[in-house]
Specification:
- This protein is α/β, with parallel strands linked by helices and 260 residues long.
- It has ten helices and nine strands.
- The strands form two sheets. It has a six-stranded mixed beta sheet with strand order 1-2-3-4-6-9, with helices on both faces.
- α2 links the parallel β3 and β4.
- The protein is globular, with a radius of gyration of 19 Å.
Length: 260
């Protein structure tokens, strides 16, 4: 069954939350080259849309993403492969931008699917979902940010074990390992992710973006991190959101943050 390129990722807005759904259910949402491009464009558009405050990423047909579409892969020279790999990294760079992104995982999330989920700020997974860093099964090492997201979540030593000795991990075990942030009953991942996204959408956009940027800065020197914290706080103190937060505190009401 062919899928029109325009529907490879479906887009739905629920108030200020945008839901992006991988839509190749006939192959469990495996990622081919067209899907990489369309997904990157969809995430970038959500990040650039002022009406969107949070993003939920999920998959159609009871699967999150079964990984790269091996049926579209063949041995080729590096100069031919780089555009494909760069298209995948474009997706991850977009996910790492300022707005909160929550993955809702049902079913398999293998290889690039695991990497895609872990690139999000929060991962909500059904307890019977399945994760696996399956890259070595086809002689590859991994991409889509897996060498950042995996050790960030579980540490370098544990990440090495999962990458070099891959195995299937249930959503329940993924929660115990710290691969995912919330484990829910089968079929409930999207609703739970939408609830989390609504909470994030009600938060202060500038502060949330600063948190993402600071944690992703890669600054190792502690004094430099302190300097960055000072700069962030100094800038945030001079925003309408900060003034609104203080006013709401004194008035004992919920703040209405606008991102200004």
């Amino acid at each position: 069954m062919a899928t029109d390129e325009h529907t490879l990722v479906t887009v739905e807005d629920r108030d200020s939350v945008r839901v992006l759904t991988l839509n190749r259910p006939q192959v469990k949402n495996a990622i081919d080259m067209p899907l990489r491009v369309v997904l990157a464009e969809a995430v970038e558009a959500a990040m650039d849309d002022d009406s969107v405050r949070a993003i939920v990423l999920t998959g159609a047909g009871g699967a999150f993403c079964s990984g790269g579409d091996i049926s579209t892969m063949a041995r080729q020279a590096p100069e031919l492969t780089r555009p494909r790999a760069q298209a995948a990294q474009r997706v991850i760079r977009a996910l790492w931008r300022g707005k909160p992104v929550i993955a809702a995982v049902e079913g398999p999330a293998f290889g690039a699917g695991t990497a895609l989920a872990l690139a999000c700020d929060r991962v909500v997974a059904a307890r019977d979902s399945l994760f696996g860093t399956t890259f070595t099964g086809v002689g590859l090492a991994g991409d889509m940010g897996i060498f950042t997201s995996l050790p960030d979540r579980i540490g370098i030593a544990a990440a090495k074990q999962l990458l070099m000795f891959p195995r299937r991990i249930s959503g329940s075990e993924a929660g115990e390992l710290g691969l995912v942030d919330s484990v829910v009953e089968p079929g409930a991942a999207l609703d739970a992710a939408l609830s989390d996204a609504a909470a994030a959408a009600a938060g202060p956009p500038l502060a949330l973006a600063a948190i993402k940027a600071t944690l992703a800065s890669g600054i190792v020197d502690r004094d430099a991190r302190l300097d960055l914290e000072v700069e962030n706080q100094a800038v945030l103190f001079d925003t309408e959101d900060f003034a609104e937060g203080v006013q709401a505190f004194h008035a004992r009401r919920r703040p209405n943050f606008t991102g200004r």
